[in-house]
Design a protein that fits this description.
mainly alpha, Hypothetical Protein Yqey, Chain: A, domain1, 2 domains, Arc Repressor Mutant, subunit A, 7 helices, about 150 residues
């Protein structure tokens, strides 16, 4: 079962659950709408990797909203966003720990022969396809800068 089918099945289950699944149902509907919009934009059906890309984008939007508006909006808003993040995380591949990210980054740095900060672009272009959807891009950039600097 691919990721789009899983989202559809989970949406049906949330519909059957009625009250218990309302937040989950709204998040799944939102993701499915984002996937559909991306399919319309790109004019083809999305693969699982592309669906993960959409999920990662939605996750990043929520994390950014917490960072920007969290204190001003209040604990209810932050709690709602954290709940949505938890639901989105179910559909993403397992996240890399900082140590795992460092290890993968070191491997890529060795592979591309990077020697300093001037090689950041080379490293990032080789590293991002390996970790996409499993870690935030900002964290990847930060880790690579530390290792190169």
């Amino acid at each position: 079962m691919n990721l789009k089918q899983r989202l559809e099945e989970d949406m049906k289950a949330a519909l059957r659950a009625r009250e218990e699944g309302k937040e989950r149902l709204s998040v799944i509907r939102m993701v499915r709408a984002a996937v559909r919009n991306t399919e319309i934009e790109r004019r083809h059906e999305l693969s699982d990797d592309e669906v993960i890309e959409v999920l990662s984008r939605e996750l990043k939007q929520r994390r950014d909203a917490i960072a920007e508006f969290g204190a001003a909006a209040g604990p209810e808003y932050v709690g709602k966003l954290e709940g949505e993040i938890a639901i989105l995380m179910v559909y993403l591949p397992s996240q890399l720990s900082p140590d795992e990210l460092r290890e993968v980054s070191r491997e890529v740095i060795q592979e591309v022969g990077a020697t300093g900060p001037q090689d950041l672009g080379k490293v990032m272009s080789a590293l991002m396809p390996r970790v996409r959807g499993r870690v935030d891009g900002k964290l990847v950039n930060q880790t690579v800068r530390e290792l190169l600097g």
